[in-house]
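Q&A log
Question type: sequence-to-structure
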Amino acid sequence: MQRDSLSLVQLVPNVVTILGMCAGLSAIRYTFAERFELAAGLIILAAILDGLDGLLARKLNAASSFGAELDSFADFVSFGVAPGILVYGYALDGLTAGFGWVFVLIFAVCGCLRLARFNLSRATPEGGMIRHFVGVPAPAGAMLGLLPVYLGLAGWIDAAALAIPVALYLGGVGLLMISRLPTPSLKAIRIARRHAIWVLVGASAFVGLLFLHTWVTLVVADLVYLAVLAGLTLRRSFPRKS
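Response status: OK
Response body:
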């Protein structure tokens, strides 16, 4: 039986989801204004809020089908549309014949397909904890897609001068999102109690570096994640013989 009223606390996860979507939309707005650092920061904020809304829904016992669908739509805006537009505005706008825009479309469509596939798998659970994702999750895909922007903002490359490689890279990240590659799920990683303190110390160091050297830290984080994906791909292509 559907209740006529809701506790305000039960709306908190949905409010966080909407805030994340607003951050993604605002990133598009600031891309048009060529305020690329702020646009990139807003997409990162959207990713943080995306992690919080699900956690809050579970902790507050406020999970719902409505919230799940809202989260999916918000993810498409923040991680499918906004990163592609930011990369286009930052590096691809100078390509002739709309070549760069084709890869933005590929990235956005792959993000949409990745979210649709995730929704279907969520609707038909097999039970137990998810050991890994199939394909790169949309938030991680957004962070990877922004790697050329991070490199440019760190002063390491001129992304606009490397527009064609950037466009191909963006399309490649889109394909990773719809691939069948198993990618790690943080929820399934178990840490021994004696090592938990080092995880906390490492997280503190990461946050500190993120504030001090934002773009360099994000570049390193992306490269580490790409290395993990490469290792998983090799492991899958060349399984150990027993």
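Response note: The longest helix spans residues 65-92.
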